[in-house]
Each structure stands twice: as structure tokens, then as C-alpha cells.
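Feature request, filed as a ticket because there's no other form

It would be nice if the structure record came with a short human-readable summary line next to the C-alpha cells. Right now we just get the raw output. Example of a typical job, pasted below so the devs can see what we mean:
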Amino acid sequence: MAFRVSRAAFDELLAEALRTAPNECCGILLGRESVIEEALPATNVAPDPLRRFEIDPQALVDAHRAARSGGRAVLGYFHSHPRGPAEPSATDRAEAAHDGSIWAIAAEGGVAFWRDEEAGFEPLSYTVEDR
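Raw output as currently delivered:
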């Protein structure tokens, strides 16, 4: 299934990846149904942010609370691979929840989107639209 990404969310994701390099960036993808409207950066609290990412738990709690109060839904998550391809790493695959969420991975100036399915990650097609 193809989905849409707002230009603002797409640009924010790339900017955050550049800003945090050489560390991995991370954050939360927010939107409604099949539209990612916002890429909300979060602090990477992983012990080794050069090679791993862990979204600040408080950012996750806050995003879910806002969604329950009528805000944008948590559609998934993003992070960067400053030294690797825009595809799930072995660590990503091992630690994924397999809950159907969307993962965006920024690498080498591009972004790839994936759906975290029970059977593993599936690549997603998308369009970036000005909103």
C-alpha cells in the first residue's frame, strides 16, 4: 500500500539525520491513516548512539497521550544509518516489535520506508507531497 508523506515531515527527517551525524537520530512519525504529517525528533538515549538508537521513553509517552487527546496518531518511528544503507539492520530486525508500524530509515541523503510486519520488514512505496 502506498502512502503519503508531507514535504515538511520528509525534510525534517533528513535535517535531523544530518544534524545528529555521526550519531544515529531517532523520532516518531505522526499523522492520520496513510499520511505522515510530522517527523517529531526525539533524544536518542541509547548507550552507544554512534551505532544504535533508542527513542526517549518520555517522548513516546507524550506522543501517545497527545494522540489519545485528539492529536496526530503515532504511525511509526524513524532513525538514521549514518554509515549504512536505508534498510533495516540486523539489530533493527532483532529488536523490532513486529506490530505493523512504519519505520523510516534515513541514509546517504535518502529515506526508505518499511512496514514492521510479523514476518519481517516489508518495503513501502510513498509519495512526498507539499501540504
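Something like this underneath would help us a lot:
The longest helix spans residues 7-20.
The longest strand covers residues 35-42.
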